[in-house]
Amino acid sequence: MTKLVEGDGRTHIKSPLMRESLQNRGVLAGTDSDHDLQIFPDVTLVGIGGQSIFDRGRDAILPLVEELAECKKDHKLVLAVGGGTRVRHTMSIALDLGLPVGGVAQLVGAMEELNAILLNALMAKHGSMPMQRDHFWDLPLYLSSGITPIAISIPPYHLWEPPPEEGNLPMHGSDFGLFQMAEVLGFKQVIFVKDERGLYDKDPKKHDDARFIPRISLPELRANPPAENILDEALFDAWANSNHLATVRIVNGLERGALTAALRGEDVGTLITREAP
Predict the structure, then answer these.
(1) Domains detected in the chain
(2) Helices marked H in the chain — which ranges?
(3) Are 111 and 90 in contact (CB under 8 A)?
(4) Which of 118, 120, 71, 80 lies closest to 259, judged by CA?
(5) Which tens digits make up the pLDDT trace of 37-86?
(6) What is the pTM of this model?
(7) Secondary structure of 171-225 in the HEC alphabet?
């Protein structure tokens, strides 16, 4: 039963935070919860790289679309797209004009929306719909209707993007945005579709002796990160404090069947686990 508190001329509903400073570390520690709600525990978020897939044209996109059409018959999917090279060009112009970092972040999302529209045109006959920015509460309607929503990946900070530690580019990129979406909404898993088999100790495009990493834990990865990481480092920092997302997988979208195998839980690509083995 709700308990009312009176005595100062006002009536309050008693709560643990009613007279506490939200900057107090003890108060913050007391807000930990072991029953956070997973809103979509049976949904997989599939992030499709802009430079990795879209920039390669029909030879990369069309086979992946066919595979996605088959996968959606057996799995609940939310698709998200990156912006690719267009994002780099747009950021270069924005920096040349002197736009603040928040303005740059706003433009990045706009570029990703173009790829969302492109993917929807190809997926439309299989049942798809571009999702408006931040309209996450439309997801139950899409999913219950058999429609695969297509979102943008950049996190919705827009003009409120925090200043970066270095330079003037948004430090919260598409990979981080996918993690945020999956964590907040409690998705089952995130699968990043790239143009590499998975994670390597260094860029395999530049180094023939790059070592493939089939499985690694988040603590191991943060303790000894690759010289050139395929995913945003901000993702790993935030993941260390997360509640829901247990695994992240990276697969090669240019390899037909890799995504299908990942959705089935098969050992393909690189699996990153939040907890150490």
Answers:
(1) 39-273 (3.40.1160.10)
(2) 25-29, 58-71, 85-97, 101-123, 139-144, 174-185, 218-223, 233-239, 258-263
(3) yes
(4) 71
(5) 889 999 999 999 999 999 999 999 999 999 999 999 999 999 999 999 98
(6) 0.88
(7) CCCHHHHHHHHHHHHCCCEEEEEECCCCEECCCCCCCCCCCEECEEEHHHHHHCC
